[in-house]
Amino acid sequence: MLIYKQQMAIRSNSGVEFERTRESMAGHDAATQHQFTGIAKYFNAYTITGRRNCVLATYAGIAGIILFFKLKPKKQKAVTAS
After folding, report:
1. A Pfam family name for this chain (predicted)?
2. What torsion, rounded to 10 degrees, do the Cα atoms 69, 73, 75, 77 define?
């Protein structure tokens, strides 16, 4: 989780101006635009779409491994002559 600070100038009733820092917790820094290229454009931790694609790729990988082991041919027992 990313914590970003926002500085604000506040003027009190007595006319004295001071700065106050406000910390906010967010999933990503909303103040900046991210320009991704390559595979990072589709799989990243900064955008909702990038996170969704990472989750879907993980689910697809797990499903693929399960299907591989379920569909692989079974070994046949050796036939012994008696």
Report:
1. ATP_synth_reg
2. 140
Nearest of 45, 26, 35, 33 to residue 5 by alpha carbon: 26
Question: Tokens at residue 46, please?
Answer: 């900064």
- The 10s digit of each residue's pLDDT in 24-59 is 555 555 445 678 899 999 999 999 999 999 999 999
Question: CA-to-CA distance for 75 and 24, rounded, in angstroms?
Answer: 59
- Residue 44 to residue 56: CA distance in whole angstroms: 13
